[in-house]
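Tip: read the tokens left to right.
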């Protein structure tokens, strides 16, 4: 009598069955693609649902950007290419695209929200990104941030910090600039220019905030305030042609 322990294993394992089924489905799917059985004629898209808080981009613009891929049908549309086409629109920061059975695509769009200008050629978004849009020169109420490209993030972070500090005395920043040597200057909403230099920038700003009321309490208004003094500051008043008045602490 034969020993059953030496008989070959003729049992088909479940994992093998699953592998064969998946391979068959994948092959059928490829065949459908090649023969057009899942193309636009058989699985046409009926809806392009657009979601998002849109101020500068219309839903029609988004649908127009998506139409090339959407016309290919529910299955054949390349969602990555469709998303890239939408994100190429000037004010679009991010797009997400998903299929919704049986005949729709859901498109979610996040727009750029400009918070400041960057070097007069770009805009800072609320996400900390720089983007460029033709025709944005006429936008009002945006602070101007300037500096080397290598210090772009540094300028943005300093602007946010300084803006919070100056808000305590009712002042805002119209312009913030750092030059190639690392020297900082701030133009306030009042028009006064703060010269902060390269060192102890935030400490010097705090010293200005401490004497702000004294400098602006009289009839004259400061035009340039130089904070690069160890124990004081120098002021050039509005209307003065030359010369500075030094104030020491």
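Filled-in amino acids:
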């Amino acid at each position: 009598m034969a020993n059953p322990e030496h008989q070959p294993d003729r049992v088909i394992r479940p994992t093998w069955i699953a592998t064969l089924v998946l391979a068959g489905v994948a092959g059928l799917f490829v065949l459908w693609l090649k023969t057009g059985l899942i193309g636009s004629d058989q699985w046409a898209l009926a809806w392009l649902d657009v979601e998002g808080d849109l101020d500068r981009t219309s839903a029609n613009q988004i649908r127009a950007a998506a139409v090339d891929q959407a016309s290919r049908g529910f299955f054949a549309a390349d969602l990555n290419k469709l998303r890239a086409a939408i994100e190429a629109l000037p004010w679009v920061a991010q797009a997400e695209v998903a299929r919704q059975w049986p005949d729709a695509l859901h498109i979610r769009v996040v727009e750029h929200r400009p918070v400041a200008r960057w070097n007069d050629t770009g805009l800072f978004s609320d996400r900390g990104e720089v983007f460029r849009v033709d025709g944005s020169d006429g936008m009002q109420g945006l602070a101007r941030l300037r500096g080397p490209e290598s210090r772009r993030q540094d300028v943005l972070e300093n602007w946010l910090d300084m803006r919070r500090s100056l808000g305590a005395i009712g002042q805002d920043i119209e312009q913030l600039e750092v030059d190639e040597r690392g020297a900082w200057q701030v133009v306030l909403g009042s028009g006064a220019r703060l010269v902060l230099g390269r060192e102890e920038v935030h400490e010097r700003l705090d010293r200005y905030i401490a004497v702000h009321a004294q400098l602006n309490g009289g009839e004259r208004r400061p035009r340039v305030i130089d904070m690069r003094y160890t124990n004081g500051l120098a002021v050039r008043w509005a209307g003065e042609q030359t010369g500075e008045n030094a104030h020491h602490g």
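The first strand starts at residue 47 and ends at 51. Confidence is low (pLDDT under 50) at residues 7-11.
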